[in-house]
Design a protein that fits this description.
It comes from Nannochloropsis gaditana. This is Metallo-beta-lactamase domain-containing protein. By secondary structure, this protein is mainly β. It has one domain: Metallo-beta-lactamase, Chain A (4-Layer Sandwich). It contains 3 helices and 11 strands. Helix 2 links the parallel strand 5 and strand 6. Helix 2 packs parallel to helix 3. The N and C termini lie far apart (about 35 Å).
Length: about 220
Amino acid sequence: MQEAAGVVSPSSSSTSTSSSPSSLRLTFLESNSWLWEIPLPPSSLPPSLPPPSLTLLVDPVMHDLTFGAPALIRGKKKVLNGPAVMESLAPRVDHLLISQGFDDHCQPASIAMAARLLPPSAHIVAPQSASKVLETFFSPERIHYLSPGEHCYLEKRREGGRDGGRVKVTATTGDTLGPPWQAPENGYLLEWGEKGGREEGEEPRSLYYEPHCRFKVEEFEVREG
């Protein structure tokens, strides 16, 4: 796994290899897959406990990519391949984030494993194009389908059902992979630290993701509220 720890702020696009408890940790899992650990306010946790984070598994691809035609194509994962990867990650994952409905972002075998291993509290954010695969393995009430401009909140649940903070997820216009009349896939703007961040006076933070680096400038204009 390749990891990058950095602090993301509105005033700077640089990252820092800080070990601060407010660091965002991004772990690359090969292919299009990521594990994101997003820092959350410590709330009323005792100082002796580690700072909380919301962990998202993004576009899970845990097996070789064949797109349903293994005799014709096979994209091999060189290191992080097979059931053991999902089994090791699942205890850390709070929710799934899916950007596209294609196998290289929403692989049926990997989604099936996630459905088996993740707790019932885990929800999925995805474009409508992923519905066929997702609803084969997850109940519809656990899936949040977003179109560009729509948003939802993903929450961290602690022992006893206590609220552990949340992250706002807003869908943006992603790539159009198909005929021009087809709905675009999703990018996502994630925002957290709404109550001043982890430290007193610390600003809210955000992270943008679109696997093909597509975006519309007008979707990032300053919004009130």
